[in-house]
């Protein structure tokens, strides 16, 4: 049994019925046990044991509140909008070093909160008329008072896939990867495109291979800043590679013994694998088994 995917497993009741009801939302804010997640910008502030810090809610602190959900004990849990002017680093190296300190459930809670706060920080103005917008719907939307337009948090779908050919799978690396690090190929879906079509297009564009039999494996929220990684597998028609070197620095076909060696961290393995947090590693583990 493989480990759960990182950033999945949020057990809060998202309580949409509270989000849409201003009176119910106000009651949740006034709840005597209401808690608020402490953030540093959009990074989490680690507690003494390294986990998330939940503080008693101060509803008078002047920052807009967003309802993350209600826990099993009936406690509403919130996060605050980042103050205007807060520096937002969507790919913070600091938080990547701290993430191993979190439990799986904490990681899921933080991932959702991070993406939500980041979205609000980058969408303070109406995309229709340019006027300032304000939070509504319990923090899960923004409304423009000037033109009445409503905007909602977006998730960017990304396909990430292993192409297989003759008992081997394709792994590649981008120029910014650490030395020796290879991963599954990935790319954003484009408008008017299915998941299967995106997998085939990305593998053709980046590696020059044609594929068939695209199958879905699993998905993972990835809050850097707000993607949904859609894990897939496909069968390549042949093994000849033509790389788009603006995207892929190197790529290679590896067999199961080589993947297992990499997963085990063997010094003689031909490449290093992504960390356990990432769906790319999950795909490699599934294939290796």
From TrEMBL:
- Provide any one GO MF term from the record: hydrolase activity
Catalytic EC class? hydrolase
Origin superkingdom: Bacteria
Q: Which UniProt keywords apply?
A: Hydrolase, Magnesium, Metal-binding, NAD
Q: Which reaction does it catalyse?
A: a 5'-end NAD(+)-phospho-ribonucleoside in mRNA + H2O = a 5'-end phospho-adenosine-phospho-ribonucleoside in mRNA + beta-nicotinamide D-ribonucleotide + 2 H(+)
The similarity comment for this entry is: Belongs to the Nudix hydrolase family. NudC subfamily.
NCBIfam families hit by this protein = PRK00241.1
Q: What is this protein called?
A: NAD(+) diphosphatase
Which organism does this sequence originate in?
Answer: Sphingopyxis jiangsuensis
> What gene codes for this chain?
nudC
């Amino acid at each position: 049994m493989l480990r759960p995917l990182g950033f999945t497993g949020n057990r809060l009741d998202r309580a949409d019925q509270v989000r849409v009801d201003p009176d119910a939302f106000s009651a949740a804010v006034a709840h005597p046990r209401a808690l608020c997640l402490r953030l540093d910008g959009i990074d989490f502030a680690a507690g003494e044991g390294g986990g998330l810090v939940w503080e008693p809610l101060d509803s008078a602190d002047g920052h807009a509140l967003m309802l993350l959900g209600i826990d099993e004990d009936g406690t509403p849990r919130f996060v605050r909008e980042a103050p205007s002017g807060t520096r937002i680093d969507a790919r913070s190296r600091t938080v990547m070093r701290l993430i191993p300190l979190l439990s799986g459930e904490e990681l899921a809670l933080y991932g959702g909160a991070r993406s939500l706060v980041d979205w609000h920080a980058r969408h303070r103005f109406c995309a229709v008329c340019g006027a300032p917008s304000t939070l509504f719907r319990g923090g899960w939307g923004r409304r423009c008072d000037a033109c009445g337009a409503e905007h909602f948090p977006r998730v960017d779908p990304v396909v990430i896939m292993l192409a297989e050919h003759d008992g081997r799978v394709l792994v590649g690396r981008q120029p910014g990867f650490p030395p020796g690090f290879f991963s599954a190929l990935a790319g954003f879906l484009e408008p008017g495109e299915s998941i299967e079509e995106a997998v085939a297009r990305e593998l053709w564009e980046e590696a020059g291979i044609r594929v068939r039999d695209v199958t879905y494996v699993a998905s993972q929220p990835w809050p850097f800043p707000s993607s949904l990684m859609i894990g897939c597998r496909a069968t390549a028609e042949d093994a000849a590679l033509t790389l788009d070197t603006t995207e892929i620095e190197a790529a290679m076909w590896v067999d199961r013994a080589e993947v297992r060696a990499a997963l085990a961290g063997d010094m003689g393995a031909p490449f290093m694998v992504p960390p356990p947090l990432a769906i790319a590693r999950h795909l490699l583990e599934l294939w290796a088994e």
